[in-house]
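Reopening: Nif11 family protein still failing for me.
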Amino acid sequence: MSFSDLQQFCMRLRKDRALEARISVAMQQGTAAVVAAGKRAGYSFSEEELSVTLAAHDALQKQMASIACTTVVAGSPVPLAQVALND
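Support: Ran it again with your exact input. Result attached.
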């Protein structure tokens, strides 16, 4: 079990469309299926490691979305929806 293997696996997913398609199907079946598919591809990581990584990824995506939807006006963050776009 290794976060390093999981990291390498994720990097390969970005490049290997066939593997990405297989993992997409496996994700619908659950983390055990993803771990098994990873093992068949030569990687060793646990369901727990995968779950932790997926949760961290989701949290980062939410944080990035929040940052992207906020700007600073007069030193205070303001949602972009409230910022007048016309001068």
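The chain has one domain: 3-82. If you still see a failure, please send the error message rather than a screenshot.
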